[in-house]
């Protein structure tokens, strides 16, 4: 099943040339992540719980 992700947002850390990571959410709450340089149909999907856990781990590792 392909989810319909809406509201794609760029990372604040994107490159000036437009290369970036984009994040969006589907109606069922699934979080989608894609690379703007790649195939727009290739999307990593995370449950809201797993997305929150990933962000927490990234924040912890950058401290």
**Counted beta strands:** 4
Strand content: 25-35%
Radius of gyration, rounded?
12 Å
Q: Which sequence of strands runs across the widest sheet?
A: 1-2-3-4
Gross morphology: flat
Query: How many domains is the backbone divided into?
Result: 1
Structure description:
The protein is α+β, with helices and mostly antiparallel strands. The protein has one domain (5-61). The chain is 22% helix and 32% strand. The protein has one helix at residues 48-61, and strands at residues 5-10, 21-26, 31-35, 44-46. The protein has a four-stranded antiparallel β-sheet. Strand 3 (31-35) and strand 4 form a beta hairpin. It is flat, with a radius of gyration of 12 Å. The N and C termini lie far apart (38 Å). The model has no long low-confidence stretch (mean pLDDT 88). It comes from Thermomonospora curvata (strain ATCC 19995 / DSM 43183 / JCM 3096 / KCTC 9072 / NBRC 15933 / NCIMB 10081 / Henssen B9). Residues 7-59 form the DUF397 domain. This is DUF397 domain-containing protein. Pfam families: DUF397 (PF04149).
Keywords:
four-stranded antiparallel beta sheet, 22% helix, alpha+beta, DUF397, flat, 63 residues, single chain, 4 strands
Topology:
Elements: E1 5-10, E2 21-26, E3 31-35, E4 44-46, H1 48-61
Provide a compact summary of the structure:
By secondary structure, this protein is of the alpha+beta class. It contains 1 helix and 4 strands; from the N terminus they run ββββα. It has one helix at 48-61; strands at 5-10, 21-26, 31-35, 44-46.
